[in-house]
Amino acid sequence: MRFGGFRGRRPALVLAFLASATTPCTWAHGDAPVVTTASAKTPAAPPAADRFTNGAASVDALVARFLEALAAKDKDTIRGLRVTETEYLDIVLPGSREPGRPPHEYDHHDQASRYFWSVLDTKSVYTEANLIAAWGGEPLKLKSIKYRKGTKEYAGYRAYKQLSLMLERKDGTEDELRIGSIAEVDGQYKFISYVRD
Predict the structure, then answer these.
(1) Where is 10: in which H helix or E strand?
(2) Closest of 110, 79, 82, 78 to residue 12, by C-alpha
């Protein structure tokens, strides 16, 4: 299949997509998952044009908003907590490189990039519906957050990869909710997607 706008850069684009689609997935073999209820140090501020809009101030704040929306079965709010198409194409996808390296050089609004976004967005929409069906309508108390694949610094953002939320239900029982990954840009946090690996 051919996509416009690659100009010989197809491998780099495919690698960038694989690195950032459901979650950036480069990590050292054997790294232990990270458990936290507080966010790590914020990376250096990017240019103003490359910031998230309506992001949360921390991982904890983002997860709290997510759980409130889940309890209310508010699909619009749940969707609004993850990156938009523009944020994915302008920040996440080109910024999925090692720290200190420039953004990927390609037309990240070309047909292939938009296709990658479409696949990711569609999977997240279905996941949102499943989350509401399985967990919605019930107040849930957050006990802890674990990043099953740790955290990772990229040139354009920091990733908190593959969340496991330990939750307490109203009857006192605890259960684990596994969802996708979070990106942090200039102190703003949003879900990349809700799709779990």
Answers:
(1) helix 10-20
(2) 110
